[in-house]
TrEMBL record:
Keywords: Signal. This is DUF19 domain-containing protein. PANTHER family: INFECTION RESPONSE PROTEIN, INFECTION RESPONSE PROTEIN-RELATED. Residues 1-19 form the signal peptide.
């Protein structure tokens, strides 16, 4: 089911997976890139906090304290379990509203450093929230029709192809995913795309490729030329 945590713990590695949204693995020992994120000024804090506060109210959550990513996904999972594809459409509406609320501050503050500064998140939670935000932009934007039309197949794939998805994540971690080598990221994306494409069809495989690429490139933009191009879903 969408946003469901499959919670794979491999040594010091947290691998969060979701049904419609497969969360990219986080390695507590990974090397974060020294990227020049757009500057998020302290004067922007109140605006960003207000936007996320409005968003979280939809799920009866608060930014005081800011929920862990696991808590957030648990609430999301329960909501979508009850609402199905209609609920997914509503969630996309809320995510798109959040993006509009943030406006130009999206580029400045919705990044690893900005989320850490504004909400006091630890590296793991900042990483997941950042990746979640941008993968959702594809799922609720260019990939919206595929997201909604294939909701139940994608949900089913996450349940019945769990082992295959786990192998994709394990291969990434064993490949030493960090900023110095783009190939493990690309291998992971193509692996996940194949799992979902084989189960739900080509359109969903392309959807997975695009969603993961969009989110991952926000973390390692220098890898863009190294990634296998995704077809439109």
């Amino acid at each position: 089911m969408y946003w469901k945590i499959l919670s794979l713990i491999l040594a010091s590695t947290f691998l969060f997976s979701t049904a419609l949204h497969k969360q990219f693995p986080y390695n507590s020992g990974r090397v974060f890139t020294e990227q020049k994120d757009a500057t998020c000024d302290s004067s922007d804090t109140a605006i960003v906090q207000n936007c996320f506060s409005i968003y979280f109210k939809f799920f009866n959550l608060s930014i005081s304290p800011f929920p862990t990513f696991e808590t957030y996904q648990d609430v999301m999972e329960k909501y979508l379990l009850a609402k199905g594809a209609v609920g997914q459409a509503a969630v996309c509406g809320q995510k798109n509203a959040l993006s509009l609320c943030l406006s130009s501050l999206e580029n400045e503050c919705v990044n690893f450093q900005g989320l850490t500064m504004i909400f006091g998140l630890d590296p793991e939670n900042a990483y997941h929230y950042n990746m979640d935000y941008y993968i959702s932009q594809y799922e609720c934007g260019a990939g919206y029709n595929t997201t909604i039309n294939n909701f139940f197949c994608i949900e089913s794939c996450s349940t019945y192809e769990f082992k295959a998805e786990e192998q994709c994540s394990e291969a990434l971690v064993s490949g030493g995913h960090n900023a110095s080598d783009c190939s493990p990221y690309n291998t992971y994306i193509q692996c996940m795309s194949k799992v979902f494409g084989d189960y739900c069809g080509t359109a969903v495989g392309n959807w997975m490729c695009n969603a993961q690429s969009y989110g991952i490139l926000k973390d390692v933009p220098m890898c863009k030329q190294s990634f296998t191009p995704c077809n439109s879903s």
